Amino acid sequence: MNVGLKKCPVCNSDLEIREYQCGHCDTIIKGKFRIGDLSSLTPTQQEFVKIFLCSEGNIKEVEKIMDISYPTVKNRLAEIARVLCSKTRVKDEISESILDEIDQGRISVKEALVKFRKRSKND
Question: Where are the domains of the chain?
C-alpha cells in the first residue's frame, strides 16, 4: 500500500488496512487496522523523525548526523509539527491573530481576554 495514501481517491473517505501477509511464510492476518498518523509524513520527514528520536532530541547531534544547520533542524521540526499537530497549530494561529489585533490597535487587551476565555470554554 502506498504509505501516503490515506484517503480514497474516489470518495475521499479514510482508507483502512484489511489484511497483512508475511512475504516469507504466507501467513495472513485479517482485520481492520488503522493507518498511523506518521504515514502523513513524507519519507524524508520520517527519516528526520527517526534521526531526531535516535539522537534523543539532541539538536546538535541531529545537525552533525544530517550535516544541516540549527535553523534547518528547527524548521524541519516545525514542518513536522504542522503535519502531526494540526489542532495545536490551529489554536496557535488563532492566538497569534488575537495578539495581532491587539498589536494593530483593533482591539483592547480586555477584549482579547474575552476572546481567549470564550475560546478556552469551547475547547
Answer: 1-37, 41-84, 87-122
